[in-house]
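2024-03-11 09:14:02 INFO worker-7 job=invfold-0412 stage=load source=structure_tokens
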């Protein structure tokens, strides 16, 4: 409760006392997992490693709440690696045990994770929309937290289908319910989801304004990981609008890729490729190749498509148009397989009007 109320230091102190002094191994296991979640980048094993260690304790005790929490952390690790199909098994088990225990926060957490994987993973958009709506019908009645966590990815899925009215309807409900619930974290994630919908609808200025709001909220709440996601999304929008200097400024604070999720690391490499094409062509081509190779370690058609499209932009800037066209068509295949209509249009536009090669520093001097 202390952590939920924003008293993280006080909550961590209590959890440490329980972990180190509890006679009950189940209580100690809950405390270990909660501490790992509270400080995932701190010393010692991360949440997924701790979850693997404590899961047998929860299983032996028949503790469904503990099992739901552990499976959720395992699923989230698969998601960070971009392996959404593998995450599905743990998501399903987390949901099953949350329902069995009547544990509403864990139910909402599992459903939110499922929604993210339906958006980011390999399930085609039409099927993902149907599944999201089915989950809402099964679990959403009388559960506002569930409706918030599922409506956000559902809004993006609708935007991928060009169903803007449905997307905005989902966002409006999520924002209304989150306001009533008083979620502090909603000040970060709700503007980010709305920014995603706006960007997919071609409203870059509105998306950038929303990302600015999300970044300010993340700064206030100390959500460093969310600030990275904001910076990457904003840099892409700036670059797509031709504002290279602004895009470079956005990326300047992102830092090393080693601490990023795989999807964010792919984005970072692809964006760096495009930004270095003018002055360091060999380095740019290397970044673009790195992004595509890393994207293939995921099962996300969205990650794979954007890596190929970034490579296409980079190669076009270097004057390598046949290779750029091949990369763009590969991106189009990924977008088409997912059912990402804005992405398909974007590739068609690229192929119809390939960007002109950039003049390199050497050529200008």
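2024-03-11 09:14:09 INFO worker-7 stage=emit residues=365
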């Amino acid at each position: 409760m202390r952590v939920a109320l924003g008293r993280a230091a006080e909550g961590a102190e209590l959890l440490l006392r329980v972990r180190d002094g509890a006679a009950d191994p189940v209580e100690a296991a809950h405390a270990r997992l909660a501490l790992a979640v509270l400080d995932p980048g701190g010393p010692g094993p991360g949440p997924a490693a701790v979850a693997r260690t404590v899961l047998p304790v929860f299983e032996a005790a028949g503790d469904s709440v503990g099992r739901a929490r552990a499976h959720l952390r395992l699923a989230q690790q698969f998601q960070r690696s971009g392996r959404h199909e593998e995450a599905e098994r743990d998501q399903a088990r987390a949901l099953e045990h949350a329902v069995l225990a009547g544990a509403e926060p864990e139910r909402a957490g599992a459903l939110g994770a499922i929604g993210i994987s339906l958006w980011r993973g390999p399930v085609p958009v039409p099927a993902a929309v149907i599944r999201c709506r089915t989950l809402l019908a099964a679990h959403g009645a009388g559960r506002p937290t569930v409706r918030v966590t599922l409506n956000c990815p559902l809004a993006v899925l609708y935007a991928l289908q060009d169903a803007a009215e449905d997307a905005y309807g989902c966002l409006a409900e999520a924002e209304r319910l989150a306001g009533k619930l008083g979620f502090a974290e909603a000040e970060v994630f709700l503007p980010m989801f709305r920014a995603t919908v706006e960007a997919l609808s071609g409203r870059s200025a509105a998306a950038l304004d929303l990302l600015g709001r999300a970044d300010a909220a993340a700064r206030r709440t100390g959500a460093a990981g969310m600030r990275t996601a904001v910076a990457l999304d904003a840099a892409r929008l700036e670059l797509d609008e031709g504002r290279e200097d602004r895009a470079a400024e956005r990326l300047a604070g992102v830092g090393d890729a080693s601490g990023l999720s795989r999807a964010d690391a792919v984005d970072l490499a692809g964006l760096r490729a495009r930004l270095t094409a003018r002055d360091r062509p060999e380095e740019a081509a290397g970044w673009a190749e790195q992004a595509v190779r890393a994207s293939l370690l995921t099962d996300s058609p969205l990650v794979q498509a954007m890596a190929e499209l970034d490579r296409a932009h980079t190669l076009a800037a270097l004057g390598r148009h046949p290779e750029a066209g091949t990369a763009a068509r590969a991106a189009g295949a990924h977008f088409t397989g997912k059912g990402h209509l804005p992405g398909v249009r974007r590739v068609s536009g690229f192929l119809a009007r390939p960007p002109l090669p950039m003049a390199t520093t050497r050529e200008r001097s």
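2024-03-11 09:14:09 INFO worker-7 stage=report msg="Residues 84-101 form the longest helix (18 residues)."
2024-03-11 09:14:10 INFO worker-7 job finished
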